[in-house]
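User: Can you fold this complex?
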Amino acid sequence: MPSRPPVRPPGTRGRSPWRGYVYVLPAFLVYVAFAVLPALHTAYLSLFEWDGVTLGEWVGLGNYLEILQDSVLRRSVFNALVLVVFFSFIPIVLGLAMTGLLARYRRPGMGAYRFLFMLPQVIPLVAVGVTWRWLYGDDGLVNQAFGAVGLDGVTRAWLGDFGAALIAVGLVGTWVLSGLCMMLFLSGVQKVDPNLYEAARIDGAGPVREFVSVTLPHLRGELAVAMTVTTVAALASFDIVYVTTNGGPGEQTTVPGLLVYRLAFSEGKVGLAAALAVVLGLLILAIVYLINRLSRTET
Amino acid sequence: MMKSTRRLRPRIARAACALALTLPLAACDALTPGSAATVEGPRSVPSSTAVPEGDVTLRIQFADAPPMVDALIAAFEKGHPGISVEPQYKTFTDYVQNLKLTMTSDSAPDIAQYAVGMTDLAEDGHILDLAPYREAYGWDESIPPVSLDQLTAGQQSEATGGRALFGVPAGLSMTGIYYNKELAEKAGIDGPPRTLAEFEDQLAAAKDAGLTPLGVGGLDTGGLHLWAALLNQTMPTDDYWDWVNGSKGATVENEAGLTASELVVEWGRKGYYNESANGTAQIDSTAQFAQGDSVFLINGNWAAGQLATTMADNVGFFPMPGEDAGDPTVASGFSVAYAVSSRTEHPEAAGAFLDFLTTPEAGQIISDNGFLPPNPEAVAKPEGVLADVAEGHRKAVGDDGITTFPDFAAPAMLDRLRSGVQKLIADRVEPADYLDSLQDEWEEHHAE
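Assistant: Here's the predicted assembly.
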């Protein structure tokens, strides 16, 4: 049975519902040209053994096999997963803690706090990396601070120490991303109906109870965003590592992003780099999908 | 209006299909990696020294020492009014990483600074073989042969049948040991060591005096300079050259490689290095040495200018000594050299510029800018630590002992060396396993 034609607002007679796509088309074409095609090209290159100059040689999935077999590449994926703890987990916990402290009370100077915690986000990561390299240096501020409180035994060359380098690099990420998480959570808290806090207080809830029962449940959406952004930052990390340790000492801080860059540009293994980039991209997509699935079922 | 929708939908669908199909198809040919890069082989170089009449513009792309290049260009243009040279400077990292793309593009510069990737480019005919020019201009007389040997990319010349030549040096480099004279005296060290064993004694003496014996900037390249300096003493120079050039059957997995690598480990165990050697960049280790943080420092001549300024008479330099006092002086070094693109339209003008680099006038400019001129006899004698460097270089050149850097053995070798030596310094790898990882990379690259 034919249904009644939909009622259109006056002045739109005769226009098709497809017309909207025309407006999207320019953006879509740009997206295809600069995001989709390069991505497909990368996937295509990953099937070749190519040094970047001479004619490539078709190797099928050979590069992917090599990735699975290469211990340095596997090690780099492990390192990236360790960085997830420092780039994602700890910043989210810290961000929540700061939100709990800053959201409940309105006092003068809060703007200054927010500015301070947000600052690392504003500075280019390369500058962040250079600064931290100095801080972690032999007579850098970190060692000076430990020395000043009598912990001379702890001081070391943080970025050159096989045990400490990855943690040291991770903490730089923690420093950068905690402020971002805090900002996200603070903006989330502002959407919460103040009456809920009032009701909680009347019911005799303390600050912790109030945070757990009122603030936290309202931050699910922001938590999902924070997890997505920070996890991607960890898995795709490049600039901080490149500037501070360049993957060293040994392979202690080598991450996939760094290897993609190195393989493609300095080692002349473009196909292998492309394959690694594809694997890394798929890994990130899978994890982001997982995070979104989890946060959706919870709400 | 329903009708129009129905008519539009297939049309759009058809258009979308066509788009989806044609885009990748049209792009397919161009997407085949390397297909756009094939050239018709190296252009032949005229073996005359004639310089063309009329206005010619040469573009030169480079990464080292902009003031030196500017001065060289100015002096060259004065003598060749018809030729103007346009400098294009890039930072070293950018330069090396984009080199292949730059040199295989249609807009390749006429002249480009020689760097690691040039070997591959030469093999594929993107770089001009300058062997005919070497004969026409007589570069064998004006440039020490050892400096030219580095620029052959391990190939025979198709044009002359002799060794190929893919660049001309302007300013040479060399690694060695700097020492703080004041601190050395404090540790009872009275002068540069004559043998490797004597140097070890001096390191021990420095340690005993409560000083840091040797500064190493192992975060980037300091570690590999140390390892290479030791390898240069333990390994016959010819074997080393074979390995770096990728000659069939060459290897570092031998007694010489083991001895050098074990020394790096042993010195680490004895606490001879600055504590954070692996976390210190080369440039930072130089600054720390200038502040008096260590008695010795491993670095290259490129740091001499900076150290001469900050430490004045308090700093000296010597090449890593050999196992016996009579051993030739051998040190890793390379040149700030320039190659010519096979796409250049002015090979004669480019040749004239390269020839100018070998003149005493250019040599003086090179020397004034802190580099070692290819022909040191032609320039005024430097002073202080610069004189030590020049003297060390003179000996090494005289002994045919300037070997190239070990990372030239394969494009990925730099990373293997850097992380590998970091592990040696931290005593985290067996020397044999370290050498094995280098040799694996070597074999993978030189497989064909």
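Residues 2-31 of chain B form the longest helix (30 residues). Residues 269 and 427 of chain B are 7 Å apart (CA to CA).
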